[in-house]
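Researcher: Sequence of Solute carrier family 43 member 3 follows. Predict its structure.
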Amino acid sequence: MAGGAGLAKRLGTLLSGLLECGAFCGIIFGWASLVFVLKDLGYFEGLCQPSATPSPNLTLGSDCSGQDEQFSLVFTIGSFMNNFMTFPMGVIFDRFGTTAARLIAISLYTGGTLLVAFSTPEMSVLLFPAMSMLSVGGILLILTNMQVGNLFGNYRSIIITLYNGAFDSSSAIFLIVKVLYERGLSLRAMFLFLAACSAWHFLRTLFLMPRTRIPYPLPPDYDYGYGGLPAPQGALGPTLWAAGPVPWAAPAPRRVTQALPQAAVPGAGPLLPNAQGQATSGRGRTRGDTPGSPRSSRCRERESAPWGWGLYLERGLSEWAWP
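Model: Prediction complete. Tokens:
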């Protein structure tokens, strides 16, 4: 890849993408660990009711089933958005390219982390939009990273598998948040740190990701990122709402009349055009047919038969060719 993206740049894109997917994209699936922290802080605590049934130590407890239902609803909506928004996010990615899609993802992710950071037990309802934004932003980030496999040719399937595994592994982030909270770190400080990481996402978008998409197969001397050259015209494959004919599509076949070698028709002389433009053999035998003649009817029957393609070779009339 002389003149294009070198191996070091491609490996940097790969490794930074693995870190991005493994630390940010699917963190909502570690929700159970974050619930422990939120309960300790008193989120949705107003939904707990005194229990009418005394506990084994003869003290009245609290029925917090309403609180648990709210936490379950937050996760249900967030995980639903993660799957439901995959298609519209994919349309945005295909239509507007990598840079635009990642800027949307970074905005959603930053907004979600800031909502959690500045939420309070009195504003527990902010968890609903926050988790949905984190979920949609994460799925859009991994969609833009899947194309990195195109940089490695025959290893592209392995790269895509690694990114999928990193996406699932990111559920451990909320477990780390829980452990750090038990060590005395505040929830606000941790989510402000996650929000600050959006600057790293932005820098990676500028320098280690393409403006449009990474084509496959990779064109010679292909480069990407800030200062990189865009992919050649027609190398990106078909896109949604493409205007006009697709330039790399195979053209429709056309019929070309030409003289076939004498060896193509056993026992016949060379084929020459007559005054009417019909192909005739060296013996003077007309290879065309007069409309309405019995011979013309037989030709139409053979053309409509499954083996009708052999008619052109036998009669030496024409062949199918590509321009």
